[in-house]
Amino acid sequence: VERKMSDNVRGRLRKIIEGVQYCGHSTLISPISERSNFIDADEPQIKEDMIRMIMQYLKDEGFGSTFLTIQDEANVKLQDQKTKTLQTIAMKKAILEGDWTEAEKLCTKETFKHEKQFVYAVYKQIYLEMIEKQDYQKAFTYLTKKLKPLESKQAHSDEFKDLCFLLTCKSVQDLPSFKNWNGNSSREQLVEAHRGILEIQKNPTVMKKVPARRLQELLCQALEYQLDANSYRPTLAGTHVSLFKDFSTMILPNASMMSLKGHRANVKSIAFLGERASIITGSSDNSVKVWSAVNGSCLRTLSGHQSRIWNVSTHFSSQLIATASGDSTIKLWNLSRAEGHECIQSFQGHDGDVYSVQFNSDNDVLLSAGYDKTVRIFDVGTGHLKKAFAGHSAPVSRAVWNPSKNLIISGGKDRSIKFWDVSSGSCIKTVSHHLGEVTSVEVDSTGNFLLTNSKDNSIRLWDLRNGQTLMRYRGHQNTSKNFIRSNFGPNEKLIVSGSENGTVYIWDRDSGEVVQQLRGHKSIVFEAVWSDQHSLLASCSEDARAKVWWYDQSKPLFWNETTGPSPPNQDSDKDASLPFFELNRDTR
C-alpha cells in the first residue's frame, strides 16, 4: 500500500524546493583535465601556496600544534629548495669558469649525485681538458677512477674506447670523434645540454604574504561559480553546502520538459552522459541514441548490436559509453570519434543476454551481469575478461560497484542479493529478503546505503553498515516480466523509479512517503534516472519514448494538488519546455 504524504513531509519539501529560483539551463563545469591550461596543480609554487593557505587556516582556527608541525616540515622543504638553488648556481658558475675542483665537490652533493648522466658529462669535460693540457698522468688516473665507473652513461658504445685512445694523442682534436671539440665553447655546450638540471627557479626565496582568510575566499568563489552554473539557485539563507561534492540544488520535478522520440521499439535503459549536456538511451530496436539534454534533438545513433539493448552506462568525466545487449556482447563507444566509427571495443564472454553493465570510477574496467547467472569484470583497454563471479542460481539482472571498488553487489532472478569480495572473487554474504525477482540494485555515493527493486512490488533501502532494512517504498507496480529499475534522486534524499502503470514515482527517502507521480508515458516505465549536474530527471518506456522532467515553478509542486502534470496515460507533444527551447525531434 502506498504510504501517503504527510503534512510534515509536504511542508518540508515545499520550503526547500519553493526556495529556489530557475536561472536557465545549467552551464556545465568542465572536468579539471580540460582546465589544465589555467593552473598546474603540480607546479611547486602552487603547492607551496596551498600549504601556506592551509597553515594560515589552521592557525586562525586555533590548531596551534598542527600548524607548528606543518610549518617545521614545510620550512625543511623550503630550505632544501634554497640549498638546491644555490648549488645549481654554483655548479653552473664552476663549469663556465673551469673551476673543476668546485665542480667535482658539487657532484657529490644531493642535488647532483643521482644525476649520473650529468656527472659523467662533467667528468668527461675535466678529462678532455687534461688531455688538451697534455697532463697524461692525471688524465689516466681520472679515467680509471672517475669515468670507468660511469662507463654505462657514455654517449655511444665506442666513446669510452675513444677516451682511452686519447692518452696516445697530442690533442683532443686528433681523434675524429672529437675533432670539433673546443675547450671554452664546450663548457657552454655542456651547460646548454643539461639546461633542465641547471635551470634556476625564478625568485625562489620570495615569500609573499598570504591575504587574510584566503582559503575561505577561494572556497566561496568556487561555490559561487558552481551556483552560477546551476539551473536553480537557492534563495534561502543557510542552504547546506558540502565541500566534498559540487553544489546541486534540491528540487522536485513536477512537469514534462520534452519527449525524446526516434526509437522504433521500447526503450529499456537511459543515462545522462557525465558532465555533458547529453542523454543516452538503449532500445529493443538494437540501437543506442545520443540526445541533447538542452533541446531534445537526436545528436547521433550508434548501431552495431544484433539484439536489444538492456542497459547503458556512462562515465562521469569522459565521452565513453558502455552498452549491454541481448546479443551476448558489451560494446564500448567513444563519442569523440567520427560518426559511424564510435565503437572501439566489443567484449565477449557471457552466454546469453547481458542485462547490466557499469564503469568503475577509474574508467579502466567494466562490470557486467547476465542471463548466464554470472557477474564479470572486463579490462577496458584490452577487452579481456579479468574475473568471473558465479553463485547465483538464476540470471543476474544487475551488478554494481561500491565507491571503494572492493565490493560488488548483485541482484538476480533467484530473489537474492549477493555481496562479492573483488580481490578473492568469493561471495561473502547473501541476502534473500525479497519475495520476488530482484530487478535492480544501486549504491549511494557514500557507500552506506543500498537501494534494491523487486517484483514483490517493493523497493527497499538497506544500511550497508549493519545489513538492516531501513525503508520499504510502495505504490508503484512491479510484478510482471519487466526490469523496473530504481535510483537515488535529487541530493540522494529522494528515490525515483519506473512502474508498470506508466508512472514515474518519487519517494522521500527517509519517510518512505510518495511525494510525486509523473504521468505522461503511455506504457510501462522501465527506468528513471536523476542528474545532479543538470537538475533533470529522465525516464524511458515501453512506448518507445524517453521523457525529461523538470521543476516548473509555474505549476503546482505536487501531483495531487489542484492541477498537476499530465493526466495518466496521456502523452502530449506540448511539453512544458523552456521558452528558448526548440524541440527539434530527430526521428532517425
Overall form: elongated
Estimate the mean pLDDT confidence: 87
**How far apart lie the N and C ends?**
41 Å
Class from secondary-structure proportions: alpha+beta
Helices, by number, come to 10
Largest beta sheet: what is the strand line-up? 3-30-29-28
Essential attributes:
four-stranded antiparallel β-sheet; disordered C terminus; 588 residues; alpha+beta
Any overview of this molecule?
The structure is a single chain. By secondary structure, the chain is an alpha+beta fold. Helix content is 23%, strand content 28%. It has 10 helices and 30 strands. The strands form 8 sheets. A 4-stranded antiparallel sheet has the order 3-30-29-28, with no helix packed on it. A 4-stranded antiparallel sheet has the order 4-5-6-7, with no helix packed on it. The chain is elongated, with a radius of gyration of 33 Å. The two termini are 41 Å apart. 37% of the residues are buried.
